[in-house]
Amino acid sequence: AARPALRACHARLMRRPDRLIANSAYSASYLTAEYGLAAEVLHPPVRAHFFTPSPRERRHWLAVGRVVSQKRFDVLVSAFRRLDAPLVVAGVGAALDRLRAVAPPNVSFVGFAGDEMLRELYRSARGLLCPSLETFGLVTAEALACGTPVITQRAGGALEIVREGVNGVFLDDLDPDAVVRAVGALEQLA
Q1: In angstroms, rounded to a whole number, what is the distance separating the alpha carbons of residues 77 and 56?
Q2: Structure pTM?
Q3: How far is residue 93's CA from residue 71's CA, in Å, rounded to a whole number?
Q4: 3 state SS of 65
Q5: Is the sign of the CA dihedral 153, 165, 119, 57 positive or negative?
Q6: Are 51 and 142 in contact (CB under 8 A)?
């Protein structure tokens, strides 16, 4: 019942600032479409002095983020039932116990990963899998800074930082079959 009033209040508040800054062109275009407002793009800072490449054996696939339903880690778990490769999921959230219960043996959950552990996970990953739509994709940018290629949706902020066939592969569909195909395609990248 309160939703229309809250939307109207939000629209009024959005017209107050003299200047709007968005974290990606995707977010800026949303502000234009939704409110008719122009926003400058300022990408979030990636700690490129910390998230750096380092020679490691690339032994697992990686998914990083809050383990909640909208991040779509369930699609990854389903895909890795058919893949003969390990998947490491770093993160905590409401869907963690449910995913653990249905995960095949090649999927492991490490819980919360601090900066040092996260950097090591990026550096030793064959690729980062990011199935969710992200307005920018800080996890994607951190993985790329570590020299780890990415599989992500062909949408959102990923379009600004992933170069298909160079440092990543896009998912046009979000289902286990598409993930399996993308893993195969990413393995073919130099």
Answers
A1: 25
A2: 0.90
A3: 10
A4: coil
A5: positive
A6: yes
119 vs 130: CA distance, rounded Å: 16
For 104-118, letters b (16+ CB in 10 Å) and e give: eebbebeeebeeeeb
User: Cα separation of 71 and 84, whole Å?
Assistant: 23
Give residue 150's identity as a one-letter amino acid code: V
Q: Annotate 11-63 with three-state secondary structure.
A: HHHHCCCCCCEECCHHHHHHHHHHHCCCCEECCCCCCCCCCCCCCCCCCEEEE
What are the C-alpha distances in Å from 120 to residues 38, 107, 108? 39, 18, 16
* Local confidence pLDDT in tens for the 190 residues of the chain: 888 999 888 888 888 888 999 999 999 999 999 888 899 999 999 999 999 999 999 999 999 999 999 999 999 999 999 999 999 999 999 999 999 999 999 999 999 999 999 999 999 999 999 999 999 999 999 999 999 999 999 999 999 999 999 999 999 999 999 999 999 999 998 6
Bridge partners of 22, per DSSP, are 41
